[in-house]
Structures are given as C-alpha cells and as structure tokens.
Design brief:
This protein is of the alpha/beta class. It contains 9 helices and 7 strands. Pathway: Lipid metabolism; fatty acid biosynthesis.
C-alpha cells in the first residue's frame, strides 16, 4: 500500500473513489488530490485509471493507487470491501460508481436492470457497510454517496434508476443518524442531469435535454464539495433555495406520527 510523504496528504488521509476513471469520479479525484488526499481509484478500465493516476501524481504530488474492479462481480467487490474494512489510512469513501438503462420499465432489458441494481445498490451498500463499521470504531471518517434528484421524481422516469437513487438517499439518511454519534460524516449528493458518459453508455442522448437542465461535471463536483465543507448532510447542487428542501423534509417528518396506528383511517371504515 502506498503512503504519502507530504504533510497535507498525511493529514487528510486517503480517499477511495469508485467509478474513478471518468466523469464525476475522476473530477472528485482531481479535487480531493488538490486538497491533499492520497487516493485509491477504483473502476473497471485499468488503462483509463492509470491515465488519471499519472496525471494526479504529477500535478499534485500525492500517492495514487489503482485498483481495477468490476463492482458487479462479487469477487472484485469483496476485494474492495476488504480494503475498506481494514485500511485505517482510508478516511473518505466516495460511493460514485453507477449506471442507468434506457427505456421505460416495460420496454427495458431486465438483465441490464438487474446489473444496474447490482452496481447502484448492492455494491455501494456493501462498501458503505465495510467502511462505516471500521470508521465507527476509529471515531472518524466520511462517506459520500452519490445519488440523484430522480430519487424524488419517480413519475418522470421508469422507476428503476430513480428507485436505486431513492434507496441511496434513504440509506444515507439512516446512516447519518446512526454514525454521527460515532464521529463519522455521511453526505448524500443529489445532482440533476450532469454532463458525463453515463448517458452515452445507456444510449440516451443528453443533447435532447433542455440546455438549462444540464450541469457541467466540474460545477457539480465543486458545488458538492462546497456543501460538504458547509457540513451539509444532503446536497442538491442545482437547488437555488435549500428552504425548499427543508420544507419537503419537514412535511415528510410530519407524516410520521400518523403512518402507523392501531386503527384504520376513518375513510376506510364502514359507513
């Protein structure tokens, strides 16, 4: 395992980033290296990972390790889990790897949907668990889960991709409550449409979206990290006024006392 000789990197520790070969993951890698983190970059494409790693080593003087892994393969996933569970140098996990599928629920390829669920739900859950269990015993660390605003837009999409992102939002919120007393930070980032390769890989033409809906990846990551610096637990890079999110959260929480009761609601009772 590589260790840094720079004081800044020693202070920050190491960030493990999934989906680090391009897009959001590669941009986070750049920003975190700039902040002095050593890096473990995880993705399937070793050649692209090595290109990112070489540039960051040269530009920022940090230690960058490449770990090739297909997170839909249980053997590859287990190796990353083991690293997170045992390596105390890793102070930040960025759960970023993910994909989407084209088409409506009925028209979609169910095998591709299953693969997406494995990457978007099973893999980040297992990685978060491995990191969280260790970090909680150490009393420090941070986990950033990349979600999507589609978590709140089920009616607009097929429900499969947005469902995986709703799961990650739910998990992140539960993790925040559980891990905050142990000194572990959890942030969920909910970007809107972001200009990355995920669309092309899914066969979706991003240029068909209104230009005002699509954010550049640099702007998205910089906003997400600004939210992290401000102590946000949920960051929506495009949302102009967080009061809207706070109102949504307050309305959701207000439902809780009446969601489980020992009698049915009056409207369901016999007249």
């Amino acid at each position: 395992m590589a260790t840094s000789t720079s004081t800044a990197a020693q202070a920050q520790g190491t960030a493990l980033i999934t989906g680090a070969s391009t897009g959001i993951g590669a941009t986070y890698a750049d920003r975190l290296a700039r902040r002095g983190y050593n890096l473990v970059l995880v993705a399937r494409d070793r050649q692209r990972l090595e290109g990112v790693a070489d540039r960051l080593r040269s530009q920022y003087g940090v230690q960058v390790e490449v770990q090739q892994a297909d997170l839909t393969d249980r053997t590859s996933l287990a190796a990353v889990e083991q690293r997170l569970a045992t390596d105390s140098a890793i102070t930040l996990l960025l759960n970023n790897a993910g994909n989407t599928v084209e088409g409506s629920f009925v028209s979609s390829d169910i095998d591709k949907v299953e693969n997406m669920i494995a990457l978007n739900v099973i893999a980040p859950t297992r990685l978060a668990k491995a990191a969280a269990a260790r970090m909680a015993t150490e009393g420090q660390g941070a986990i950033i889960n990349i979600g999507s605003v589609t978590a709140m837009m089920a009616e607009t999409f097929s429900g499969t991709y947005s469902g995986t992102k709703a799961y990650m939002l739910n998990l992140s919120q539960a993790m925040q409550v559980e891990l905050a007393p142990a000194g572990v930070r959890v942030q969920a980032v909910l970007p809107g449409a972001t200009r990355t390769e995920i669309w092309e890989r899914a066969g979706i033409d991003l240029n068909a979206f209104p230009a005002e809906m699509v954010m550049g990846v640099d702007d998205m990551v910089d906003a997400a990290l600004a939210g992290f610096d401000q102590g946000e637990t949920i960051t929506l890079p495009a949302l102009p006024d967080m009061a809207d999110w706070n109102a949504f959260t307050a309305a959701r929480l207000a439902l809780q006392p009446n969601l489980s009761r020992n009698t049915a609601a009056p409207r369901y009772l016999p007249a």
